[in-house]
């Protein structure tokens, strides 16, 4: 492409209303800490793999956009730029919705520009691992909620942990995609199950747009908000000016409090590692100190604090070794913990396993708030200073190798324990069937519950010589005052039912003069 054509394309996209301008490339990943910046010298990677990377400020655990963060994806990128972050990974809980919406929005602009100008700028794809977006190197990621088999928490339940997965294939044919979809749909059923109770009992239908609007508003004061309790539903109805016939708040509260809950789909971390590896993903345990602090301890009454901490560290080390035996790729080394003790325990476990040269370390802010002028952005910042360059360098080198493998048509660049594809498909199908069974069980239980409360209501009404209550009729013009309709930037060919749509996407593409065909 000629230089003048490049300049014209760059100027056109800069004039689309984008809040971004082209900047030099750096990195942002998942850091759970607050304070000093995390800088990583990766000159060795630059020389070895032929990429132009010098010193990185990085953060590999970020939340924002459509699901569990506060603020839009565009605001997240803007805050990253302000904090001089040059590599970024959005790692929402159990979904890659924000990344999907981001790619769809940018690809729509690229397709339009290519058609209008007879150019061939490439589109963004989940099959690649590193993407250049307005001067920031972006790596798709996700934070998955898992349980560790055979390990109990202090609540005598399977220990729940969060695992970060980077670079896994996420196209519609991906088994990893299918697993996340089953988990995410189960999360939504649990988060918004009480609305199903009202719909079933009173014959109304709630607008997803209105619910999403309320969720976004709640996240301004409660980042990560998503699950509706009884008080949340009542608050939603009040603030949305919704009335259900002549049903009183107290009557509604009684109905909701006794309602059944959908079962939560629990993913075995060993299974998730296998499925993610089959899709070329890199698996990192998020904030290990926070996760493993909940390990159950068999303590005698009167155990001293120092003895408790010693036993807890022993328990953490045991679990870390268990995860390493499952082929976990690494740990988050810098995050928002109260002390660095957890990272020290993890590194000792790695050393005792003789795996210092192969385990990957990352760092992340776990930032959930973007674009708020009253809140200092934590993106790219950690409480305990710098991450040693060799730790992040090893992770970045694997990311670069993986991207080059994808460029050559390969899924992964590493050799893991052999697991036949049929076994992986069977694992995914097991979780899909469980998610469907939980949904069916919930709806069946809900029907039985509604029958019971209807019968009770009828008997009470009969005793009072009143007619059985009349169900409310759904009328959007009466129930929803001043409804807000959001415009969604997605491709017409892309199904929107599988994602929580980011209703405030305002990202635009900037095609850079020096690297027009690199993402």
Q: How are the SSEs ordered, and which strands pair?
A:
Layout: H1 3-14, E1 36-37, E2 39-41, H2 43-49, E3 55-62, H3 73-82, E4 87-90, H4 97-117, E5 131-133, E6 136-138, E7 141-152, E8 158-166, H5 175-191, H6 193-202, H7 208-218, H8 230-239, H9 249-257, H10 269-278, E9 282-285, H11 288-292, H12 305-325, E10 330-334, H13 341-352, E11 360-363, E12 381-382, H14 389-407, H15 421-463, H16 476-479
Helix pairs in contact: 5-15, 10-15, 12-13
Describe what this molecule looks like in 3D:
The structure is a single chain. The chain folds into two domains: 1-143 and 157-168 and 279-419, TIM Barrel; 186-263 and 430-479, no CATH class. It has helices at 3-14, 43-49, 73-82, 97-117, 175-191, 193-202, 208-218, 230-239, 249-257, 269-278, 288-292, 305-325, 341-352, 389-407, 421-463, 476-479; strands at 36-37, 39-41, 55-62, 87-90, 131-133, 136-138, 141-152, 158-166, 282-285, 330-334, 360-363, 381-382. Residues 1-55 and 464-519 have low confidence and may be disordered. It contains 16 helices and twelve strands. The longest helix is centred in the last third of the chain and has 43 residues, at 421-463. It is globular, with a radius of gyration of 25 Å. It has a five-stranded mixed β-sheet. Strands 7-8-9-10-11 form a five-stranded mixed β-sheet. A two-stranded antiparallel sheet has the order 1-12. The protein is of the alpha/beta class and 519 residues long.
């Amino acid at each position: 492409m000629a230089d003048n054509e490049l300049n014209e394309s760059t100027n056109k996209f800069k004039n689309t209303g984008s809040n971004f301008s082209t900047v030099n490339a750096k990195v942002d990943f998942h850091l759970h800490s607050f304070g000093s910046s995390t800088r990583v010298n990766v000159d060795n990677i630059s020389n070895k793999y032929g990429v132009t990377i010098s010193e990185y400020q990085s953060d590999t655990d970020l939340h924002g956009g459509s699901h569990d963060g506060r603020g839009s994806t565009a605001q997240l990128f803007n805050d990253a730029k302000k904090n001089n972050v040059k590599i970024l990974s959005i790692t929402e809980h159990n979904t890659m919705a924000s990344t999907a919406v981001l790619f769809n929005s940018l690809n729509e602009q690229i397709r339009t520009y290519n058609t209008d100008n007879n150019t061939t700028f490439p589109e963004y794809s989940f099959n690649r691992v590193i993407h250049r977006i307005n001067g920031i190197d972006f790596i798709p990621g996700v934070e998955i909620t898992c349980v560790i088999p055979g390990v109990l928490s202090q609540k005598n339940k399977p220990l729940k942990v969060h695992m970060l997965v980077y670079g896994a294939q996420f196209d519609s044919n991906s088994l990893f995609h299918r697993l996340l979809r089953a988990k995410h749909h189960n999360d939504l059923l649990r988060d918004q199950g009480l609305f199903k109770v009202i719909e079933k009992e009173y014959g109304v239908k709630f607008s997803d747009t209105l619910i999403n609007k309320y969720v976004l508003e709640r996240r301004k004061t409660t980042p990560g908000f998503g699950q509706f309790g009884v008080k949340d539903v009542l608050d939603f109805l009040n603030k949305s000016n919704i009335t259900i016939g002549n049903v009183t708040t107290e009557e509604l509260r009684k109905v909701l409090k006794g309602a059944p809950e959908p079962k939560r789909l629990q993913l075995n971390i060993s299974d998730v590692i296998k499925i993610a590896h089959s899709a070329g993903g890199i698996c990192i345990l998020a904030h290990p100190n926070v996760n493993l602090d909940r390990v159950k301890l068999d303590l005698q009454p009167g155990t001293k604090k120092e003895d408790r901490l010693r036993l807890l560290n022993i328990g953490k080390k045991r679990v870390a070794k268990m995860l390493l035996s499952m082929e976990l790729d690494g740990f988050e080394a810098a995050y928002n913990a109260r002390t660095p003790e957890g990272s020290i325990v993890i590194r000792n476990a790695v050393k005792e396993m003789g795996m210092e040269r192969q385990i990957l370390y990352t760092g992340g802010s776990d930032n959930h708030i973007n674009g708020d002028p009253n809140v200092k952005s934590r993106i790219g910042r950690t409480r305990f200073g710098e991450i040693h360059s060799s730790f992040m360098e090893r992770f970045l080198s694997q990311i670069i190798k993986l991207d080059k493998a994808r460029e050559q048509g390969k899924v992964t660049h590493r050799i893991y324990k052999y697991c036949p594809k049929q076994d992986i498909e069977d694992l995914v199908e097991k979780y899909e069937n469980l998610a469907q069974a939980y949904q069916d069980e919930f709806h069946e239980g809900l029907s039985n519950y509604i029958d019971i409360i209807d019968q009770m209501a009828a008997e009470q009404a009969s005793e009072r010589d009143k007619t059985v209550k009349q169900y409310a009729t759904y009328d959007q013009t009466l129930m929803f005052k001043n409804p807000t309709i959001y415009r969604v930037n997605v491709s017409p060919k892309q199904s929107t039912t599988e994602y929580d749509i980011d209703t405030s996407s305002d990202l635009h593409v900037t095609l850079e003069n020096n690297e027009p065909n690199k993402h």
